């Protein structure tokens, strides 16, 4: 399994870092078999698999359940778990407790948190000093979408740009091993990756030290809105739809189950394992 130092080395060697989300064991196994460098158990699962309109309804228990499933499905891949809405804004002690749960009980190797308040910077220091690796997340931070005014491109004005660069430096100084930047102009991403020693992983941020994409967007399984920056590499939705339609037709026409899928009174040797 790759470690945080390997991601630093990859940046230095200009080898692109790949990250994909997974929310359950079978999708985690696909991501691992595809030799993706890191798996993100993103709180986007609230939208992608639970049908919420944002990530705010996602709880630590939700993240824990999904992280456990992902850890069982991908035993050789570095797993990052999102700390969900408001689980790292009360106190350092509370943040440490919640991050420890995701790592110790959930099986994550690192946690990701959004934003850059004083409390967050102190928490990054405390977590890393205790042995929990932390990934930062700046730009469009979906947990704050209500305050930001929606899912909008960030860091376009000169002031916003300067603030984002200062925040990124502070996150690195606090001990984070990588930084996700979401929905920012590519020129800002380029500046960030040149300034920082830690890898900058982009989503809707142009070329960076690495990229992250939501699994369901990538394979064409997302129902509803897909962000403009997400490239769809397959149409798994249609493959699944055709399979279920075929099954329905077979049952209606009494073609399924046939001999091959039916038990008889006397056990018969069969060549298939079904
Ligand atoms: N399916 C899915 N994919 C994601 O990448 C994703 C989620 N869900 N949920 C959690 C966050 C939210 N994300 C989003 C969601 C929407 C936009 C979006 O609508 N962006 C506009 C740009 C708006 C502008 O121009 O300012 C777009 O048209 O893509 C962006 C990021 C990224 N994450
Ligand atoms: C979009 C990525 C970076 C994320 O935070 C998530 O999937 O929750
Ligand atoms: Mg997230």
TrEMBL record:
Belongs to the PanB family. Keywords: Cytoplasm, Magnesium, Metal-binding, Pantothenate biosynthesis, Transferase. Binds 1 Mg(2+) ion per subunit. Its EC number is 2.1.2.11. Catalyzes the reversible reaction in which hydroxymethyl group from 5,10-methylenetetrahydrofolate is transferred onto alpha-ketoisovalerate to form ketopantoate. Homodecamer; pentamer of dimers. Pathway: Cofactor biosynthesis; (R)-pantothenate biosynthesis; (R)-pantoate from 3-methyl-2-oxobutanoate: step 1/2. The lineage of its organism: Bacteria, Bacillati, Bacillota, Bacilli, Bacillales. It comes from Geomicrobium sediminis. It is found in: Cytoplasm. 3-methyl-2-oxobutanoate binds at residues 43-44, 82, 112. It catalyses: (6R)-5,10-methylene-5,6,7,8-tetrahydrofolate + 3-methyl-2-oxobutanoate + H2O = 2-dehydropantoate + (6S)-5,6,7,8-tetrahydrofolate. SUPFAM superfamilies: Phosphoenolpyruvate/pyruvate domain. This is 3-methyl-2-oxobutanoate hydroxymethyltransferase. InterPro entries: Pantoate_hydroxy_MeTrfase, Pyrv/PenolPyrv_kinase-like_dom, Pyrv_kinase-like_dom_sf.
